[in-house]
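Treating backbone geometry as a discrete language has practical consequences that deserve illustration. In the encoding step, the backbone of a single protein was reduced to a row of integers, each denoting a local shape. The amino acid sequence and the backbone structure tokens for this protein are reproduced below.
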Amino acid sequence: MPWPSRKRDKGAVADKKEPDAKIAKTEEEAPDKEEEEKSTKPPAGSSKSGWKNWKKTKESDSAGEESKITYCHWLLKSEPESRLEKGVDVKFSIDDLKAQPNQTTFWEGVRNYQARNFLRAMKLGQQAFFYHSNCKEPGIVGIVKIVKEAYPDHTQFDQKDPHYDSSSRKENPKWSMVDVQFVRMTKRFIPLSEIKAHHLAHKADGGPLKNMMLFTRQRLSVQPLTQEEFDFVLSLEEEKPH
């Protein structure tokens, strides 16, 4: 199988056009330099109408009730453009996934404890957005599903692999991976800039994207989504791009 390296939190996103964005501190700093997402400034007021329209199609939660946040969907970042890491091209686009046998591959190479824990929390059948990262226009391009729950990432033991970890032991592996399978392309490309416009509006009006980790934990290549976040972002594929 061709090298399906993608994913790594070391390649996770820091949006330079959001100067007051907080970079999350994790248990272990990502070893490689941060990737920089290029995002245009969101158009003023472009989100609120979308949020209002979305609210009309959803049952509102009971007023004044706060329930524990439950994550049941995911966002997985991958690099669609060629980039060499220790002599290996880490490119892996959604088209590369579609070209795999049974359109399935393992999601290896994650070397960040928080992202690894998210991998370990994934359940069979759960869906994730496939997000093109570290490219000219980052954003969501498709949907995948988890077809095998977390198990040891074999690349941590391979000295020839860019993600080799000499401190990990086979009897107690540090790093995990899951298997994902292509489900479908989104009906249109949903760019980071558009998602950000909604996020900023929702921070003001209490919409579902107000705490989306794509903007509060930019460096993570594996991110959880609540049902409300997933549903709202998915609803954007039905709208005409701004």
About this structure: Strands lie at 13-15, 35-37, 71-78, 84-85, 88-89, 104-106, 127-132, 139-152, 176-191, 222-226. The mean pLDDT is 82. The domain at 73-237 is CATH 3.10.590.10 (ph1033 like fold).
